[in-house]
Amino acid sequence: MSSKPQALGSTGPMRAFAANSKKVSTELIEINENLMGFNKFLTEYYKQLAETWNEAQKKVNLKAPEVPQDVEQIEAFKRIWIDIFDNDFTELFDSKKFGENYGKLVSKELELTKHWNNITNVILQSVNLPSKEEIDEVYKELHSLKKRITKLEIESKKGSAKNEK
Amino acid sequence: MKSESRLDPKLVEEILKFNKNVMDAPKLVPAPDEITLEVTPHDVALEIDKARLLHYKPLTDKQHKTPLLISYALINRYHILDIQPEKSWVRNLVQQGFDVYMLDWGSPTAMDKYLDFDDYINGYLDGSVEFIKNESSVEKISLQGYCTGATLATAYTTLHPESVKNYIATAPVIDGWRDTTVISNLAKNMDVDKMVETIGNMPPEFMYYCFSVLKPFEQGIEKYVKFFKNIDNKKFVDNFLRVEKWLSDTPPIPGELFKQWIKDIYQDNLLIQNKMYVNNSHIDLKKIDMPIFTQVAVGDHLVSPECSMPLHYAVGSEDKTLRMYPTGHVGMIASSLSQKKVLPELGQWLLERS
């Protein structure tokens, strides 16, 4: 009994958690590395927005240099402002540089989510709950079974219709 | 010392009125749950998993023989086609004497992440078509697809041309490489494999982001300024809130379906090149040989006309019609223009072929 101390804690959560704690540390280190990449693309994202904003504001200033004083002037100014800003931002969102950076930003965000999922899996395993991958397997199996059942139902209906004829 | 103010008194009045409107808004505006979006009476004729087939009750004594099934888009929900009595696409067609069905794809949950094109086309769409054929005792039906629903309906029509008498493609997403919208730019740069593997279904919040970059200042500022300015106009407020409620109701998109969608349509552009496959079946646009009516909106900033129009030229039909309307993506289906121009033209076209 005293020679196998690990067996004593085998049904509790801490043993399973301790066995996988290295995994948690590794994931946390990788999260840190990912965060650096994520911040790089996030900074670029806001830089692109800020630059576009500044350029659009310059265009507005050129087109409407006077401070509007009455209702009609404000309406006209608002229209110019919205048109220029919408045009410039649509041009940005439509550009290759925005698309590429945004794609990389989302990709880094997904990597962070993946690490977080991996840490959660360690915790789930420590309390004998299925991991995300295991649940996904169940979903996949259910989907495939549903398809097979539907196919069989259609074939059975066709068979019944033939027999009736 | 005399101080001189250059501020127009009318401007001060406007600002004060706007302020008052903002303060009064909670008293004048109903809560979202007080607004009912389904306006035309209907029954749920069929349920397949979470998808529901809606059957609209007739509003005329006589109905045209060929029933019409509407395949709504995958983004937001079908309510926009029945948003309010005066602008309802569905009600207009029912009032023209058509027997209208609509597919509500439902709201997929995490366990639906493996639903794909095959499930939607050969499962939900085909199941609905077969049900309608049986109910109406007809060999063929008329099929209309809207936006992404038209991509599904197009693929369906190539695979089951024997079941489709007439095909209507409204703002269909067909040629991803020609699409000039912001959505297409985001889609082309997406690591969709990683996205689906990591998060499963496409979350609604991501869709909100994609929509928020479309005309961000008109939609994000001007729209709400107009709303508060018109807070006393009951009709305006009702219409505004109905559309807002519809916009905020974005169900997730099943992961596998989304992956195929982004890859096959936007990244590899397989559909228009006749290189797309659904469950090993070839999607050949030339197999669409029945009468086809393609409706395109010139000001569509969600599906650009360049993305939709190639369908008209790619199909095998001899009886084909292409119409362009001076409106936007939603304006084509839920506006006074759609009631006065788009729907009467569609009704006439369908009537001649039903």
Largest sheet of chain B: 8 strands, mixed
Give the helices and strands of chain B as they follow along the chain: HEEEHEHEHEHHHHHHEEEHHEH
Q: Of all protein chain pairs, which has the greatest interface, and how many residues does each chain bring to it?
A: A-B, 36 and 38 residues
How many beta-strand elements of chain A?
Answer: 0
Helix content of chain A: over 70%
Number of helical segments with 4 or more residues of chain A: 6
Order of helices and strands of chain A: HHHHHH
Total number of beta strands of chain B:
10
Judging from the principal axes of the Cα atoms, what is the shape of chain B? globular
Distance between the termini of chain B: 82 Å
Which percent range describes the beta-strand content of chain A? under 5%
Decide which structural class fits the backbone of chain A: mainly alpha
Using only C-alpha atoms, the radius of gyration of chain A works out to 30 Å
The 3D shape of chain A can be described as flat
Strand count, sense and barrel status of the largest sheet of chain A are: none
Oligomer: heterodimer
Q: Which class best fits the helix and strand makeup of chain B? A: alpha/beta
Low-confidence stretches of chain A: none
List the helices and strands and how they pair.
The complex is a heterodimer of chains A (165) and B (354).
Chain A (H helix, E strand, L loop, with lengths): L4 H4 L4 H7 L1 H43 L7 H23 L2 H31 L5 H33 L1
Chain B lengths: L8 H20 L13 E7 L2 E6 L11 E4 L17 H7 L4 E5 L12 H20 L4 E6 L1 H12 L4 E7 L11 H7 L3 H8 L4 H9 L3 H14 L4 H15 L6 H13 L8 E3 L2 E3 L8 E6 L7 H4 L1 H5 L5 E6 L10 H18 L1
Parallel strand pairs in B: 3-4, 3-5, 5-6, 6-9, 9-10
Antiparallel strand pairs in B: 1-2, 2-4, 7-8
Helix pairs in contact in B: 3-4, 6-10
